[in-house]
Design goal:
Helix content: 40-55%
Shape: rod-shaped
Strand content: 5-15%
Distance between the termini: 33 Å
CATH topology of the largest domain: Rossmann fold
Structural class: alpha/beta
CATH superfamily of the largest domain: Toll/interleukin-1 receptor homology (TIR) domain
CATH class of the largest domain: Alpha Beta
CATH architecture of the largest domain: 3-Layer(aba) Sandwich
Length: 289
Amino acid sequence: MAKKKVFLSYRRDDAAGFVHALHNRLVEYLPDDRVFMDVHGIDTGTDYVRTLEAALDQCGVLLVLIGKRWAGGGEKGQSRLQDPRDWVRSEVETALRRGIKVIPVLLDGATMPAESSLPDALRPLLRVNACEVRTSRIDADLWDLMGSVMRSLGERWPPAAPGGAIYALASGSYAFLAGAAVLLLLIASLFETASAAAALGIGLLVLNALIVLRLPLHPIIHRLTRQRALHVGATLHLLAFGIIVLGDTSLDGAVVFLFGLVPAALLFLAAFAMERRVQSAPSPVRSAQ
């Protein structure tokens, strides 16, 4: 079953700048062919009426961009929406009649039109909760609008955090390696008395695993970003294992390499890879991390 599309209904003399910003933001999270905008969706020589009707047939959400000139500007100062041939009226009326989700988007201080300016078929629009998009806070407003659109389409929201898979793999692998190192050291302590340095190192490894996993044991740990947790974890791991080696110089070189250097390198590389992913992500996603 084909996934539903988003239909952008607007007037070019009223919302042209906003509609391009909205279209560009939508295609960051949806395939381009699931966002219909007349400039992008109708080729030269194509039957305009049939294309619009076909787009509405596949529509799951219709966004009505309402600026300060959305209703006015008709003949003799009357509402353009009173004209049955007005395409904006036709788009919204058709969506309401078919039960398509309609979201009014109020642009830069615009308000919902007066009931007297709307034909009877469009008056249900006044009962729909609208959202605002303002130039002064366009990123935040578009982020909220994206959430409404994506949830209405049944899509995942918020989007997966950039680098989330890298963090999950790195933190899980580190927890396994750190646990194995602690277990080996505890087994070794059964055959000989553990030094104070070894005990301190083991304690630091346990603490480090909690930091890398960002377990909500303390506000400081919980507030760490994923990248920062990996950076701190790599440094603390080297410190902990260095203390253990100083307390037990008999440790085999292979053990030091496998359980000391490899986990720290893993965390450093994962943090670097995550930073690259975050830098290439859309700005609202970066700010949400």
